[in-house]
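Help wanted!
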Amino acid sequence: MQSSNKKNGDNHLRRISYLALLTALALVIWVAEEFIPKPLPWLKPGFSYIVILITMDMLGVVDAFIVAVLRVIIGSLLFGRLFAPSFLLSLSGTISALVVMSLLFPLREKILSFVGISIGGAFAHIAAQIIVAGALFYRADAVLWLFPPMTIWTIVAGAVVGSVATVVLKKYPNRDY
Amino acid sequence: MASKKLQTGIEKTDGFDFLRYFTVRNYLIKYFRLGDIIIVLLVIAIGFSPMYLHKNGSIKSFSIILDSAEIASIPADTDTTIIVPAPLGAVKIEISGGRARVVESSCPRKICVHSGAIGKAGQAIACVPNKLIIIAVGDERSGKYDAILK
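Answered by r_m:
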């Protein structure tokens, strides 16, 4: 995947410009989501994962990782909470979601669709956040009660995100960027 | 009409066709695979397991402490009635169904009797005139905290 990118300079340039565009798109959605009114601060739908799923399909797993981590770092910088506890929560959730999604990604179109990948990633995100929150604030057994309601939320949000990604990739099946 | 459109019009979409013939059945056929259902079931299984783990973190035994020394530790699943020889006279403690309470006491104000039954880790009944404490002891994970303030 990486070696084929460096076959010629043109492809390399395209990859970089696509990465910049997709990072900007994911960042805008991530920041805009912060302003949606919601009953609990961490009950986000996670629409920026649409862009990350599209990146995964277009450019590969490594580039999806780059987009996801850059989105969290630059977004936290914009809100002025880089290296704050909420930044650590976002980063740990993102990294574990990306790990689960890249493990599930090779199975797509055989036994999985983007809906399954997205639900798995959403649950990994939330699970890592809950565990890190419990470790940070020393409230391990209090935080465990968040798991059942958040599980239902991850299934709903993950299904929506995965469906939207499928629709977008059907409209623009641009695999040979 | 909708089905006709699904059969013929699926080749040449104008980008927003998916909104026109969007039904739950089409959605499931187009977007779902068998693995997705497995993922959903797996996520539900993992997500709801902490509830059951949490329930197991209940009490192990009742510790009876008289004058700063533990005189007895009774497993929570036994049903007994014991009489403790306290400084002011006998104190009758009943343990049944995983809960402990003081039935009769020789103390003047009977606060220990009126405090009722205890059954959760960390709860306690104290009888100050008799220098008697009954504590519900949990496993190690629950015992990490003395108290949680809300």
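OP: Thanks! One thing I noticed: Residues 1-5 of chain B have pLDDT under 50 and may be disordered.
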